[in-house]
Please model this.
Amino acid sequence: MARTGRRPGGADTREAILTAARQAFAERGYDGASIRHIATSAGVDPALVHHYFGAKDQLFLAAMEAPVDPATLIPQVVAGGVDGMGERLVRMFLSVWDSPAGRTAAALLRSAVSHDWSARMLREFLTTQVLRRAMKDLQLDPAEAPLRASLIASQMMGLAMARYIVRFEPLASAAPETVVAAIAPTIQRYLTGPLSSSGP
Model:
């Protein structure tokens, strides 16, 4: 006889897994949520979660309907090392937001401003899927890396809000190269510059 208490495969099963995943990621964060816990909450076997979504990072991206997979983009940014990374990061950021994926990204940002759940999910996405991936191969001081990452996030989120949500001119219609030239040095300073004043 088939085991009871487990949901069979199907469209409803996939949605039940996503619902459980969204709740788990929002409540426990990416690191605290486990495939086993999500599967139990959804009433399915953990193997079924892996069948539908693969690894946890792919489940997380599906749960928050992320417009892009950072795993395919971040290697291009960090490939050249820390030198010049500010420019590469801004250039990649603009290429995503200026593409069709930008519409989904804009919807996520608008939702994060209005809803606590969306804000938590976006924070987890930026922290674990974007900044952690970008920082891990750069050999930055572990004591400074979290602050450097959050400063970079603040700059990029501000850029997204001003250029794509509020559409503040002339930034909104500025050529990408103009934006890269203006913003990249600040990002590079957040990566490699001093974090505190050496003065009195």
